Amino acid sequence: MNDLELQLHYPLGEALPDSGRCLEVVPGIKWIRMTLPFALNHINLWLLRDEMDGPDGKVQGWSIVDCCISNDGAKAQWEDIFTHELEGLPVLRVIVTHMHPDHIGLAHWLCQRWNVNLWISALDYQVARFGTMGPTAFGGERAADFFAMHGLNAPDTVAQIKARTNYFPSLVPSVPEQYHRLLDGTVLQIGGHAWRCISGYGHAPEHMALYCDDLNVLIGGDMMLPRISTNVSVYEQEPEANSLDLFLDSIDKFKALPEDTLVLPSHGKPFTGMHTRIQQLHDHHRDRLAEVMEACAEKPCSGADILPVLFKRSMDLHQTTFAIGESIAHLHSLWFAGRLQRKLGDDGVLRFGVTPA
């Protein structure tokens, strides 16, 4: 554990669910951990004991929260879960916190497999649906042009990004044709407990965390992670977003919840100490912003110039596209605050310099 993690508490210790099995975190909530083929090598998914109205009265079963990417390995793990962990009961609905592939990738398959509805925010549903509509929806030439404008313009890198035209649909081949809309403040009755939706921004278009006051449990999705800081990026679809400020404002909503809330994150282990973690994240980004300001005070910087300031390790292309999005987010936070000004150079690259006093 790092020093920041030591300030948090992990009620389950080092316990992790086995592949294709669950670990009960509190009565009626089961933890699933599935493998991802990325540097971030796992995602946590959740089964909630539930009941819903059916044609002949109440039906007992389970709600699934988040899905994993679409691949054969994840489907096989789900089939093991269905065989060994559902206690002979059906899946009643699929809830997705947000539209990133590791969360929504298998929503279409799960909903078809159990003939149930998808529950998600409208904005994330529409963005995910758009992303599945063809190889030019996300990425490709528009992403390459955007990143090049922010200094990621080495010819081989540009060529590789242009070639990534099928990334999203390869992980999310489809989304259900219908959905049930989640809004900030929506209350879901799940297994006799009220779960309130809490919207979050900056990481995804309209992320929905779920909080149950009865159980004092927060399904935090990617908005509240114990070990790593959530990726907060600017991309070509919204090229002048202020994603970092949106994210920091969003996590402050969780301050209204009890300090001893059990947080179920999408990555890492269940933990308590959420107020401490919120402050850690604010401190982390405050320090990174100070580093960005220092770099821009020496000379005007592009997003690519900020990469080694924020990230001290080598990265592959997949990681680099996330990292430059985060570099731009930090530059934009300072730009929107009036501390930096930007200028498009003769080489077509945007650079940010300190605003004159």
UniProtKB/TrEMBL annotation:
Cross-referenced InterPro entries: B_lactamase-like_C (IPR048933), Metallo-B-lactamas (IPR001279), RibonucZ/Hydroxyglut_hydro (IPR036866), Sec-metab_biosynth-thioest (IPR050662), WH-like_DNA-bd_sf (IPR036388)
Pfam families: B_lactamase-like_C, Lactamase_B
Limits of the Metallo-beta-lactamase domain: 42-267
Molecular function terms from GO: hydrolase activity
Highest taxon listed in the record's lineage: Bacteria
Keywords for the protein's UniProt record, in alphabetical order: Hydrolase
SMART domains given in the database record: Lactamase_B
Signal peptide (residue range): none
Protein name per UniProt: Zn-dependent hydrolase
Source species of the chain: Rhodoferax saidenbachensis
